[in-house]
Amino acid sequence: MSTQPLKENRLFINGEFVPSVSGKTFDLTNPTTEEKIASVYEAGAEDVDLGVKAAGAAFPAWSALSAEERCDYLIKLADEIEKNEELFMHLEAIAMGMPQSATKFVIQLAKRYLRYFGTHAIDITGETSLNTTGYINLSIRQPYGVCGGIIPWNAPLFMIVTKLGPALAAGNTMVVKSSEKSPLSSILVGLLCQNIGLPKGVLNILNGFGRPCGEAIAKHMDIRRISFTGSVATGRAIQKASAESNLKDVSLELGGKSPLLVFDDAPLEKTVMAAAFSILYNSGQVCMASTRIYVQEGIAPKFIKALKGAMSELGVPGDPLLASTKRGPQVDKLQFDRVLSFLDHAKEKGYDIALGGNKALDKGYFIDATIVRDVPENDKLIREEIFGPVLVINMFTDEDEVLNKANDTEFGLYSSVFTSDLSRALRVVKSLEAGAVGVNCTSPFMAIDMPMGGWKQSGAGAREFSKACLETWTQTKAVFISL
Ligand code: NAD
């Protein structure tokens, strides 16, 4: 395949690819080679307007289709993604350094997600009530109309699918902005929408930056709902923009700093492999990655030794275009420098760096698989999202102590507990402040029928999987019928 196998680089508006109104473009760099791979058109506020107009015009006919008719398109889109797996793997490798094995997993997830929502839209129903004398009352669920989606760069195909799948199934039309760091797979989704004959304007896809493009979506007066996945800081900006414009419904899926609790009776090998995979998958650029490990004193020496071995093996960096590569680079220079700054901080503070701690290769934005031990709980390595292959391990004595430490964070996206004691597992599950908890596992991303959404500052108003997600894309109307 050529360096940039995708010839299209424009915005997908009203079913056609068009240049941006300003004609501006921006460059993309391959994080493995540090070379330019493509230029794409950059959307501004005028392009957002065009997308919203197209989505508005498409809404009446799209929402009038039966649920099955809408869902047929989603199933067809999943089939098209299947036919183009090689191309998606290539694009994610050159645009964001995702190894083929990691992209394969994301592609499976994206297809399953579309097929799930393509099957379950028919389950959107309301309620009836005879509880008021002289009335039959009912509630109906209706789409919002034109919705906005803003996605991060770290799993581009899956992220766009999480927005368009349930939104379109529920009868909405959309304007989605891809991340400026990884827009290529979203452009390919636009091409596939043309292949399946998705009606014009139902989905509009813009390449662009947070400002002006994302901001214009967040402020737009004709967008009724916005679904955002990204950092807490941007989530806050989007909520503010909504508050200051038309009070659109806002769904936020935000960052995490997930704790993983290892008790003395944990199944050692399983725990080690789960912990290593969680921090190294996509080079730690995963919102739910287990970044804080708390290990009980008795098992700590064995656990840390085995984890160092597993991370050394799984963490070997390489070219994401090679099928044998296990781990790629960080997405770009900005992210690379950010992760290195955390490592410099650990060195300045004199923390125990038990593994790695440096830039990994001479070329490309590769960072060592890293373990830092015994870090004070108030340090930024424990408090802030690093979004790299960097793990902190601290020890604990008893259950109360570890629960206090695990919950002492503003994040609440994901947590895991490893133990052979079922009662303890369930006690801990109940006490952990997170939207999802794994018992003897980290995140089984494939569980699409389970509602996922962050607690605390990891989210607001969002449920991204399951039928609960579909409901978030509809608004209810109460209907009172006097007998
Ligand atoms: P980010 O917040 O920097 O950017 C996310 C998106 O928002 C991008 O498309 C960006 O262009 C846009 N944006 C930036 N400023 C904006 C503004 N003022 N108005 C509107 N849009 C704006 O996040 P990122 O660096 O792309 O992604 C990493 C973050 O995403 C991490 O915090 C990670 O934990 C989080 N994340 C969360 C989940 C989840 O499911 N909870 C999943 C993936 C990533």
Write the layout of secondary structure elements.
Layout: E1 11-13, E2 16-18, E3 25-30, E4 35-41, H1 45-64, H2 67-83, H3 85-96, H4 100-120, E5 127-129, E6 135-143, E7 146-150, H5 156-169, E8 173-178, H6 184-196, E9 203-207, H7 210-219, E10 225-229, H8 232-244, E11 249-253, E12 258-262, H9 268-280, E13 290-296, H10 300-314, H11 333-349, E14 352-355, E15 370-373, H12 380-383, E16 390-396, H13 399-407, E17 411-412, E18 415-418, H14 422-431, E19 437-439, E20 455-456, E21 459-460, H15 466-472, E22 474-482
Parallel strand pairs: 7-8, 7-10, 8-9, 10-11, 12-13, 12-18, 13-16, 15-16, 18-19
Antiparallel strand pairs: 1-2, 3-4, 5-6, 6-22, 11-21, 14-15, 17-20
Helix pairs in contact: 1-7, 2-4, 2-6, 3-4, 4-5, 9-10
Bound molecules: nicotinamide-adenine-dinucleotide (NAD).
Keywords: Oxidoreductase
Enzyme class: oxidoreductase
InterPro entries: Ald_DH/histidinol_DH, Ald_DH_C, Ald_DH_CS_CYS, Ald_DH_CS_GLU, Ald_DH_N, Aldehyde_DH_dom
Q: Tally of extended strands?
A: 22
The percent range for helix content is 40-55%
- Cofactors, ions, other ligands: nicotinamide-adenine-dinucleotide
The whole-angstrom Rg is: 23 Å
Write down the overall geometry.
globular
Question: Low-confidence spans: pLDDT under 50, at least 5 residues?
Answer: none
The share of residues in extended strands comes to 15-25%
What is the overall number of helices?
Answer: 15
Mean pLDDT: 96
Give the end-to-end Cα distance, rounded to a whole number of Å: 68 Å
Name the strands of the widest sheet in spatial order: 14-15-16-13-12-18-19
Biggest sheet, in brief?
A: 7 strands, mixed
Q: Helix/strand-derived class?
A: alpha/beta
